[in-house]
Amino acid sequence: MFSWMLPLVVASRRPLVLILSGALVTALTCALVLLTPLGAPYSAERPQRVMLFHTRRTLHGPAPSVDTFYWMPELDVNTPHSLDAYVAGMREARASSAEECARWVYCGAPYFLPVLSLVARGHRLPAPAPPLAELRVRAELRPAGEGARELLLELDGPSHAVVILAPAAGVRVAHCAELGGPPQPGPRWGARDTHFPGARWLQLSAAGHAMHGAAMRHAEHARLLAALPPHAAPTGWGVDLHLLEL
């Protein structure tokens, strides 16, 4: 640890004083970091970024299911348990499981942007009530010629919606009427091709993000954000997420 001091010790006339001085400076630095605000990782100038999405997730299918939770993307290494003392239920937060990520595109999480390479995972914690945001989804996949299918998709809800299509292995999205051509390709979801060979044509994730207006935050969501410490810079809103296989 102090090998860098060896040349100085060898050249010094009073090496013991030099060694003790170095040890004292090291101990003082550790004390300042551990026992004073100087060592705090966050402050008003260096806030902890917190995003918390109040989510209703509907899994469509023969046996549809609905669950409600807060979803917190992992924006730094201290997410989420540095906030355990401030938010009820934070200790119960759990990361997206390998099973969820293998089963659903983007782990079945309400990503606001396709930034999986930057935000590799998120954490779920219980929510006492569903969000106010509501997205109505109608999706129909119908024949459109030899070996082709046409997806009819209708969304009604918040002004900001995130739609992710994940075609099955060997299926190509050739045209989007809204874009007048093929959609922009995103990151490959390699697990889907591995885990669903020859399954349905595609997976669809549609999330309505209520970024403003009366449906932006439930009272419980607002109360949770208000409970965060002064060094946190929180944001978040209600999301209605739908996951479908067609």
Written account of the structure:
The chain has 246 residues and is of the alpha+beta class. It has two domains: 3-39; 48-245, no CATH class. Helix content is 19%, strand content 29%. It has five helices and eleven strands, in the order H-H-E-E-E-E-H-E-E-E-E-H-E-H-E-E. It has helices at residues 6-11, 15-35, 98-103, 190-195, 219-226, and strands spanning 48-51, 53-59, 65-73, 94-95, 122-126, 136-143, 149-156, 160-167, 202-210, 232-235, 238-245. A seven-stranded mixed sheet has the order 4-5-3-2-11-9-8, with no helix packed on it. The termini are far apart. Residues 191-199 have low confidence and may be disordered.
Measured distance between first and last alpha carbons = 60 Å
**Helix proportion of residues, in percent?**
10-25%
Strand % is 25-35%
User: What shape does the CA trace take?
Assistant: elongated
